[in-house]
Amino acid sequence: MNKKKELHHHEILSKERQLYLKGRQKRKRLIMTTQILILLAVIVIWEVGAIMGTIDSFIVSSPSRIWRTLLNFRNNQLPFHIGITFLETMIGFVLGATLGIFIAFTLWWSSFLADVMAPYLVVINALPKIALGPVIIIWVGAGMQAVIVMALAISLVVTILEMLSGFVNTDAEFLKMARTFHASKLQIFTKIVFPYHLHTLFNCLKINIGLSLVGVIAGEFLVSRAGLGYLIIYGGQVFQMDLVMTSVIILAVLAALLYGMVVLIEQVVIKMFFK
Predict the structure, then answer these.
(1) Contacts with 130 (C-beta within 8 Å, 6 or more apart), sequence order
(2) Which domain holds residue 197?
(3) What global pTM score does this model have?
């Protein structure tokens, strides 16, 4: 009798679970459909407005003109410029994440050093990094290295502050238990603190991939002769707004792809640690 009740209860839970999953999938499809419709509506309104003259196509271009610019990518060397921006962003992003985590670990290790550096980190984080552009150019020279340093300057401090905050706020009970078993400080970090904050790490990386791209574009505005930032400046100077708007849209797509890449890596890493 009890087994029958348990089986019946399990069947009810299973049906409820299936209904929940179906509802969740339905909601995801509805959200995606709505997002696509909004995008299509913007494109249609933009194109129709440009044709009718209610939108100045000289200033903001139009979807059809942007499409023609994309088809003419060989003359505009778009793949080359996209590749340069992507490479600079990835180098800045990887350097920012690696150095940021290492410095956060160092500050977690030494609470005295963390207290000393805290006000400086806050001030540096609040400082508009674009103001450092001329200084960076003098220090490292004009070119790709200056662009990468600009991306690093924007993303590094955010990584340090976010990761340090996570490390410091690790559950005290876990730390007490580890100390009870005479775990070393390095063991506590590698076995408890760092794995405990994997979600914090990836949330930080999701922010930093965008910040690195912002830093690269800011650097390209100042010194670069290649990249999407350079194309935007060049297009504005010669009044080729089609090229400017095309570059902006490619930047938006690139940002979305880079964010998706971080999300995919997060899913793989989380499965490896928590399978």
Answers:
(1) 218
(2) 70-273
(3) 0.77
